[in-house]
Prior knowledge:
The chain is of the alpha/beta class. The chain is built from 29 helices and 28 strands. The strands form 6 sheets. Strands 1, 2, 5, 6, 7, 8, 9, 10, 13 and 14 form a 10-stranded mixed beta sheet that branches. Strands 17-16-15-18-19-20 form a 6-stranded parallel beta sheet, sandwiched between helices. Helix 1 (19-25) crosses helix 6 (73-91), helix 10 (287-297) crosses helix 11 (302-311) and helix 11 packs antiparallel against helix 27 (705-726).
Amino acid sequence: MKAIRRLTVRPVLPDPLRPLSDLARNLRWSWHPDTRDLFQSVDPECWASSACDPVRLLGTVAPTRLAELAEDRRFLRRLTAVADDLDRYMTGDRWYQAQSGRLPAAVAYFSPEFGITAALPQYSGGLGILAGDHLKAASDLGVPLVGVGLLYRHGYFRQTLSRDGWQQEHYPVLDPHELPLALLKEPDGTPAHVALALPGGRELRARVWLAQVGRVPLLLLDSDVEENDLGERGVTDRLYGGGSEHRLLQEMLLGIGGVRAVRTYCRLTGHAAPEVFHTNEGHAGFLGLERIAELCDDGLAFDSALEAVRAGTVFTTHTPVPAGIDRFDRELVARHFGPDAELPRIDGERVLRLGMESYPGGEPGLFNMAVMGLRLAQRANGVSLLHGGVSREMFSGLWPGFDADEVPITSVTNGVHAPTWVAPEVFRLGARQIGVQRAEDALTVGDSDRWDSVADIPDQDIWELRRTLREQLVAEVRERLRVSWRQRGAGTAELGWIDDVLDPDVLTIGFARRVPSYKRLTLMLRDRDRLTDLLLHPERPVQIVVAGKAHPADDGGKRLVQELVRFADDPRVRHRIVFLPDYGMAMAQKLYPGCDIWLNNPLRPLEACGTSGMKAALNGCLNLSVRDGWWDEWFQPDFGWAIPTADGVGTDPDRRDAIEAAALYDLLEQRITPRFYERDASGLPDRWIEMVRRTLSLLGPKVLAGRMVREYVERLYAPAAEAHRAMDPDAARALAEWKARLRRAWSGVSVDHVETTAATALAELGTTLGLRVRVNLGDLAPEDVEVQAVSGRVDSEDRITDAGTVPLKPVGGPDLEGRWVYEGPLALDRTGPFGYTVRILPAHRLLASGAEAGLVAVPSDELAQAAGLLMR
């Protein structure tokens, strides 16, 4: 019979065991081995059956066992030690507290998904895992972050396969009371709520759940409350589900409701109010509108409030293609903002303008969330060096007149949270060399360039570690494969072959990620005969473990999954290649350490960062990847192999796949498998082990989330907090008025004449030219602008590359026609074709860059032809 109502019955812990409840409710257990070991010792069988979730464990362990533990002095000593350790972790000073200067009192970090642990399934892929790692690293460093997201009642889908290999989706209902969450409550004990106004006088209400991620509170908004109508209750039903209006409501709740939730949390707990707001992708971009509305309520005009909000906002873009950005119909957005809906104090047309694609090639009828995010943030970044460049190109239309490399989007390369992703066996090997505390510090703070102690680990120990991890993966794969085949309808009698799947002594390749077409799941199948030969080679075989989910609406991605599954089902090769359904954090934590090679073959440059290879590297797995994302930045032959790419615009996609697949096979046949199977006199693959050693010692420190978060603090959060403090109401009004005056006057700004002391088109290195420039500033004054000489090498079309800038100084006052003369030196500091130009930029102490206002004046074509000088 089916129950008509479900409720959660929580255990009553004996008083000596009460600290177990606090330990279970703080998600630090998910990356703290001692805490996990403690929970496992409560009841090893219950721990395994609860999927290593302490909340579920405590709900299933027998009362007799709890009573027994309450009398076990050895267990109670361990419990006290672990609880005391958590208390020191939560209250003691860490890296952030030791820094000098005025750092932000708090930072609010918004993301549509968070991958903290498999016990809280609120993520779909890399964006969520990155957000979870960001929170965990911030906690380890003591950064006062507040996370903000949505609580999805179905999370992301669970994946199974049909008998013929077609992806099937299942959406289990998540009960918040059975998750490591607590309701945020008002002083009278009632749940705290936030509300959004909807068209037609309706309302969207949400309660706020709190997940404690170490020192970092994560606020998750949940619309499934009785006060809502059925439609509104379903707003937070599924991650990335529903149609356009459904997604818009999710993003309004995340951004606008999220700010309100942060204000409520700070009011109820006394937590410092955030000075910086960080939006992880455009989904949370509406947070800027809510903050503008707050300031308008305090008496600021819209333009002044906009400047104040921009000063303290950081925007991170993760997509390298316009198709990856959320865009909504302009009329749909207009309906949800204005007098009859949300933020009635703000003119709806001003809202629409923030997201308008007002640049060549843009669609004015669409509202672009990333465009709004960039317009509402004074600081923006991509997630790898290469992706920063791709982002500057992609969004350059927002800064007309500037070369792409001057677009104010920087980059902070992603990192991964080592305590989450490093296998316990790898950690123990490191701790044996340098001690537990130093090993923990190395993995969390990440402030060293190299881990020299790895050099002292004997080859034999490294190789035994690698085989142990491979052996564990083989056992995991067989167990998951057996479950998958039963779900596909196979009987026990059909599954005897699974006992021989994979071999712990065979070179193991891993490939696991989401399955959009650009990641090319099936590139490895391009030449099936050649792949089969690699899998079945008599002396140097390889084996491949593949996992990944296609979006439920992406039939093309599902066909790729089916194509791979059908190949892996072939009895000739199924012991050498497997597809594991339902890829998630629990699987990943076994997969990364157990592989020898991590394969990544996206279409370059469509991988923004690609952090899965970082997690593999931290476990001594070597990367085999297209030079995209982070691998383009840090690739060295010491760490793995780069798959050559056919990037030319004239190469059709089919031919490109053929070329790159052939390059992949060549690398495996000629360089990778020989090195893995080649043995020295002691029977060890010494050259392979040396690559593992270098990966750990040189690449390991680079890929840490601790390094990433420190960069965010130093390069983005601290400057944003400083700008926020400087932008008091008077400063915000003054800046808004100055920008308005600037825009009105800019049409009168021009470069009228350029002359130089150089008499010929030839000069020697080290020569200094004198520049004299006459400019018209119209209604502006010299303090409103900076006149610059821009110089550098020039290409065949006289475009300046690798440009440097030198400010020129005004000489005297304006002439009778109101024009100013600027002068300055120009050093010829490099040989070869050399060129220069001059330009005028807005200048103000509160601008983060000269490009921020999007205005520039350069010489006219006629003037450039008359005065332009190229040195050859």
